[in-house]
Each structure stands twice: as C-alpha cells, then as structure tokens.
Sequence to fold (178 residues):
Amino acid sequence: MQSKSAKRKPFTLGMRAIKTLAATTLIAFCYALLDRNPCFACIGAVFAMGTQLKAGLKNGGNRLIGTIMGGIVAIPFYPLYTHETWGIPGFVYLTLGMAVILIIGQLLGAGGGIQPGAVVFYVVLLTVNESKFVVYILNRILDTGIGVAVALLINAVLPSPYEDGPHPIGRLMKKIKK
Fold:
C-alpha cells in the first residue's frame, strides 16, 4: 500500500520507447508485406535499441553474435542429440553444446552473446523439426540481423540528445538545445 506522501510519476513515453515502437512497427509492417513472421526481427530490434547508439551497438551486437554462435554450435550437435550418437544420451550433447557456447563466448570476448546463443541452441535442438533445422537457424540469424540493423538505423536517425562521442546528429542536437 502506497503512503499518501509518496507521489507517482506521471506516465510518459520516452524517446527510447518511441524509437522502439517505430522500429518494431516498421519491421512488422515490412514482414507483413513479405508474408513472413516478424517475431525474431522485432526481438532483435528491441535488444538493439539502446538509450544511445553506442549502447544499441553493444546490445544488438551481442544479440546477433549470440544468435550466430548458438546457430553454428547447434548444427553439429543437432544430429548427435537427436540420434543419441554412439549410444550417448541426448542430455550429454545438450551439456557439451552449452559448454562449447560458453567457451566460444569467452574466447571471442562476447560474454553478452552467451545468453542469446544458449537460447538459439536449445530452441533448435529441443523444438525444431529435423528436416528444417538449418533453414531455421539461417532465418533466425537473418531476422535478428535485420532487427538489429533497423533499430540501429532508427537510433542513428533519431539520436538521444545525450549522445556521447562523435555521433554527428547527437552533437547537432546538443548545439540546438543550447
């Protein structure tokens, strides 16, 4: 229960929320024209929409690197897992595949890509039909890349007025506000 002295902030949509809505709406609209499911492109856009372009590059990059990592690791582990190759139980391959993702993420210095990589790996191995798993992986990578690219484009066109560094639109916005 809230005390009488505590005041609520009024609800507002900030610039990041507006840019996220713009990116996901644009993606959903374009994908509808292509009769394609926009789910993973929209998720990629949400991850890549940082408060500033630099944060978006980092978050979106981690999402894309993780998707690629998880997809690549899933390719050799899929038949091992589904056929329990050499009589080894499937859960062992799930563990080994996850270990490979952890190692690759650390070697690449892409610790932020481990979580999305694990999601792709487990989704592919545990839910995707054997005849479609490679196509599914390629589509996930493509859609995530499109989502990240759209978010970064919108973030570049509509930068935060607090944008750090050499972002030309961010510098211009700061000058205008002064």
User: Anything to note?
Assistant: The chain has a mean pLDDT of 88. The first helix runs from residue 15 to 33. Helices lie at 15-33, 39-48, 53-83, 90-108, 114-127, 133-157, 168-177. DSSP finds seven helices and no strands in the chain.
